[in-house]
Structures are given as structure tokens and as C-alpha cells.
Design a protein that fits this description.
36% of the residues lie in helices and 21% in strands. The protein has helices at residues 8-11, 24-30, 53-61, 96-115, 137-150, 170-179, 193-198, 205-217, 236-248, 280-296, 313-319, 360-368, 382-397, 402-408, 417-421, 424-429, 449-454; strands at 34-35, 68-75, 77-78, 90-91, 121-129, 152-163, 183-189, 222-229, 253-258, 300-302, 306-308, 324-326, 329-331, 337-341, 346-349, 352-356, 374-379, 399-401, 433-435, 438-440, 468-469.
Length: 471
């Protein structure tokens, strides 16, 4: 690889920090607790049909063009179902459904842009899925050209795309480069062939390496890799080895996600043998093994589940207290508005959140009838904004002064005192630490930070059953 390498051997320090061990009894205590991942606040289970296309249209028409925006485009197609998948996606064997969907997507872009009183300044564009690179190269370049026409895309904007290396072609990589894409996130999950077979995602190392060569040859130097733990047949040793292989590919960032086994919601997960899934303690140990391997190689832990080179903008923004979090995870995107396009996509505006219809046919029908495909959302209250800011800083920095957040919102510094007083159990368990009005998550409890954040969530009781496990 010709990218600047951060070799595991060269980057190791004499006394590297290690992820602290955890009391199995503590894991058992919180096992089964369901809390949000807090990529928004309030979270998606609390969206309602009260925020419909009419409401969203009004929010677009009131947009302040002195503020910045970002765009998310959801392309929900894959060539094969990975059995661990929890995304909204559709398996297709022909290109016709993709071409039809892209026609609807282009129309939606026009409908949204027409509602905004001018060309919104855009600094971030993110393509997610599904597998966005299943688009034909020409169709992708046409779509990017449309976005540049309808929005004022900054010359130095970040254009990011999620990629399944198994389906990437040299032609598509070249089209990405010509279109200005400058960040690519490659799904890997695990390099062990046994694990790959068990999750229906056979992806030899050489396939991922070839994808990286094509991308870097196309001028796309910023690369992220996704790894997972808690998958069938994984062990502490195997996930550490996968992390070591990933490091040899010199990524700028890595995301490390835990597998959420919810076969009652995602029926394809029934194909996964539950008897070869690790328990709560085993999952924790797998995460720790990956985190230690990446940390020993010089990567910085970012929030809940990301890792970045020390000079990467993600790490820099965390050090400066400017790191953000949205529906794509931890981000350098500080835009005032996020516009979501495509079936199931979520947008965030100053007034609140909106989500498009999830079923393809509902989304398509709305577009064909000339309606914004908004299905639900939520309007923010002043208390929502207050708690969102506190939860955001806690999730990004592992520490927040609740008094300072209250004052920034025009309230007395004591506004969160009742919340802090009710956290004695978390403090006793070592999950949280409180000093005055500052609440922090100790390093040993980093993977449990969502439990601490949830104590500030006044909506949680009405939607807890729809969230992922805390451990």
C-alpha cells in the first residue's frame, strides 16, 4: 500500500495503555438493559406522524441560508444479505430496481431544493446503505453533478461513501475519484474465514486489499474500516488478529461495532447459530482485545466505538471538544442542518428531526405524487435541546459539566442537580464519576457510557424496549 503507514510495531509505546478489565458481576447487573445509541436526541423510536411532509416543507422554507448544511443519501440495495445486518436494505439481482430508485432519489433532491429559499451551503455529503457503490459509475457521477447544481457544495467539502469491497470495481473507484469523493468506509467486520462463512459474508483479505489499491489510485486517501465483535465463532484471539490485519492496511479510522442479535426484528438473523455467540463477558473481552490492539498501534479511542490516527481530524476535534455525533456515528460534521434523501433516511434541522418512509413502495408513491416522502419526525422543545447538548458532549468527551450546559441555555447551573443526585448507583458501580456538577465516564466503563447518558433522557421510558442492549 502506498498510503503513509502507521505500522503496529513502530507505533507501539514502551508502556501502552490497556483497556481495563471489568467485574463480571457488573456486566451481569447491566446485561439486558436497553438504551439508545444516542445518534440523536430524542431518538428515532419517539418520532411520530405529527411531523409530516407539510411540517418538513415549512422547515425547509424557513431555512437560514447563512447557516451550513450536510447531505445524507441512502441507497438501500445489496447483492447478498449478510446475516448480521440490521440495516434497511433490499437484495437485488438486476440493475433495474436501482435505476428506478435513483430516478426517485433525483426527484426528491429537486423537491427539497425547490423548498429552500436559495442554494444551501454544503460541507459534507455522505452516501450510506445498503451498498451505494452498486450504482453504475455514470449514474453516480450524474447524481453528484445534480447535488452540485442544486446545492452550493464547498470546494473542500468532505464526500464520503460506504463500500462493500466485494462489489467495488476499478471503474467505480475511478468514478468516485472523478466525482470528488475523498473518504471511503469499507465494511470488513472480520477477516476469519470461519466467521465470514457463519455470517454469509465471504470476503478474502485480497478483496479488501484490491479495493484499497483502486481507491488510493483514484486519489481517495482517507480510508475507514469497519470491524465487529460478538459475531458467531469469534474469540478474543481471532478479533485481535483481525484488528492486526486491518492495521496492516493503514486505515485513518476504524469503527468497532457490537453485533446486535435481534432475530425477532430481523428474521434473516435466525440463520445465525446462537450457540456460537459469545455471552456478555465474552463480548466485552472481544471489544477490549480490539481496542488494545488498536491502542497499542497508536490509534486514539474516539467516544464509544471509533478509533483514529492522532492527526486525523476526528481525533483533533475530540481533543478540542468539538467532536460531533449524528446518524452516521462520530463525525467532524458541524452543519446546522442535515438533509436526508432516500427511503428510511433521517434528517436533522434546527426545528427537529424528520424521517422518510421506510417501505420502498411508500417512498416511491410519495415521490410519484409530488409529495415529500416524510413519514414521521419530532419537533424539538427547549428541554430537548438542553438535554441533547449534554448527552452529545458526554457521548463525545466522556465528561460534561452539567452546570455549564445549563448556563449556556439560559438556566440556573442547578438545572440538572436532580439528575445527578439520582446517579449514586452508577457512581457506586464505577460506571460514572461526579465532581461537583461534572459527570464523567471512567475509562474502564467506556463501553457503558450509554447507560450514563440515558439517565438524562426524559423520553426513555416510553421507548426503551426498542433500543439495543447496553452491554
Amino acid at each position: 500500500m502506498d498510503a503513509p503507514a502507521l505500522s503496529p510495531a513502530a507505533a507501539r509505546t514502551a508502556a501502552p495503555s490497556r483497556t481495563a478489565s471489568v467485574d463480571p458481576a457488573l456486566l451481569a447487573k447491566y446485561d439486558g438493559l436497553r438504551v439508545p445509541r444516542y445518534t440523536s436526541y430524542p431518538t428515532a423510536p419517539h418520532f411520530t406522524p405529527a411531523v409530516d411532509a407539510g411540517v418538513y416543507g415549512g422547515w425547509l422554507e424557513a431555512m437560514d441560508l447563512t447557516r451550513s448544511g450536510s447531505l445524507y443519501l441512502h441507497v438501500p440495495f445489496c447483492h447478498q444479505m449478510c446475516w448480521y445486518c440490521g440495516c434497511h436494505t433490499k437484495i437485488v439481482a438486476r440493475y433495474a430496481p436501482i435505476a428506478e430508485y435513483l430516478g426517485h432519489l433525483r426527484r426528491e433532491i429537486g423537491m427539497v431544493a425547490d423548498r429552500i429559499p436559495g442554494r444551501l451551503r454544503v460541507r459534507h455529503i455522505h452516501f450510506g446503505g445498503g451498498t451505494p457503490t452498486m450504482m453504475a459509475p455514470d449514474d453516480f457521477e450524474t447524481l453528484i453533478a445534480l447535488l452540485r447544481t442544486r446545492f452550493d457544495v464547498a470546494a473542500d467539502a468532505e464526500l464520503a461513501i460506504e463500500i462493500d469491497p466485494r462489489t467495488l470495481t476499478a471503474q467505480m473507484a475511478a468514478a468516485l475519484g472523478r466525482s470528488g469523493v475523498n473518504r471511503a468506509s469499507l465494511g470488513v467486520q472480520d477477516f476469519d474465514p470461519t466467521v465470514q462463512e457463519a455470517i454469509n459474508r465471504v470476503q478474502p483479505r485480497a478483496v479488501t486489499e484490491q479495493a484499497l489499491i483502486w481507491l488510493r489510485d483514484a486519489g481517495i486517501a482517507n480510508v475507514n474500516l469497519d470491524l465487529m465483535y460478538g459475531l458467531p465463532h469469534q474469540s478474543v484471539e481471532s478479533v485481535a488478529r483481525s484488528a492486526e490485519i486491518a492495521l496492516e492496511m493503514a486505515p485513518d479510522r476504524l469503527s468497532v461495532f457490537g453485533y446486535a442479535h435481534v432475530p425477532w426484528m430481523k428474521t434473516h438473523q435466525k440463520k445465525i447459530d446462537e450457540s456460537v455467540l459469545a455471552g456478555t463477558l465474552g463480548r466485552w473481552e472481544q471489544f477490549a482485545a480490539i481496542a488494545d490492539t488498536l491502542g497499542d498501534a497508536g490509534y486514539r479511542a474516539i467516544g464509544l466505538d471509533h478509533f483514529a490516527r492522532p492527526g486525523d481530524e476526528l481525533a483533533v476535534q475530540q481533543e478540542e471538544g468539538r467532536l460531533g455525533r449524528n446518524f452516521q456515528g462520530y463525525t467532524t460534521d458541524d452543519a446546522d442542518a442535515l438533509l436526508g434523501f432516500g427511503a428510511s433516511s433521517i434528517g436533522a434541522l434546527p426545528q427537529g428531526y424528520v424521517q422518510n418512509a421506510v417501505p420502498f413502495d411508500h417512498y416511491a408513491t410519495a415521490i410519484e405524487e409530488g409529495r415529500l416522502p416524510t413519514a414521521k419526525g419530532i419537533a424539538l422543545t427547549d428541554d430537548d435541546r438542553l438535554r441533547r447538548d449534554l448527552i452529545m458532549r458526554l457521548m463525545c468527551d466522556l465528561s460534561v459539566d452539567a452546570g455549564e450546559v445549563a448556563i449556556a441555555h439560559g438556566l440556573d447551573s442547578s438545572a440538572f442537580d436532580a439528575d445527578l443526585a439520582a446517579m449514586d448507583d452508577l457512581v457506586a458501580d464505577g460506571v460514572a464519576a461526579i465532581d461537583g456538577r461534572r459527570v464523567s465516564v471512567p475509562e474502564a466503563a467506556r463501553p457503558l457510557m450509554r447507560i450514563v447518558a440515558a439517565r438524562f433522557d426524559t423520553h426513555l421510558a416510553s421507548g426503551a424496549g426498542r433500543h439495543s442492549r447496553a452491554v
